[in-house]
Amino acid sequence: MYSVIIKKWDLDIIEYQEEVKVILLNRANIVLGIYEMSKGGISGTVVDIRIILGVALKCNASSIVLVHNHPSGKLVPSEADKAITKKLKDASNLLDIGLLDHIIISRLNYFSFSDEGIL
């Protein structure tokens, strides 16, 4: 997913402003689209679970991937990152929408909650 999303990211601001995007996928894991959730400041931005799930329902997405960048370039998830992942996973399960991953990206690399077994 990193190769898909990095092409859609403004690399001029990836190290200056935090952004959140959601990759929407169908049952065959084909990308239906990428929703630009929010842009924030240097150390944070808004992640609204209701908006994410509303968009997923409107797009008839079977699953989603949450993606955000850390302007610092450090790919270690914060406690807030872990909390929002758990909250989104629990809420999406109620609607039978799979949360496949939460990916933190930088210009050159990424951290995957799924790959690390913490999703």
Automatic annotation (TrEMBL):
Write down the superkingdom of origin.
Bacteria
Q: Which residues form the MPN domain?
A: 1-119
Q: Which PROSITE patterns match?
A: MPN (PS50249), UPF0758 (PS01302)
Instruction: Alphabetically list the UniProt keywords.
Output: Hydrolase, Metal-binding, Metalloprotease, Protease, Zinc
Q: Which InterPro entries match?
A: MPN (IPR037518), RadC_JAB (IPR025657), UPF0758 (IPR001405), UPF0758_CS (IPR020891)
Q: What is this protein called?
A: RadC family protein
Organism per entry: Flavobacterium ponti
The beginning of the lineage is:
Bacteria, Pseudomonadati, Bacteroidota, Flavobacteriia, Flavobacteriales
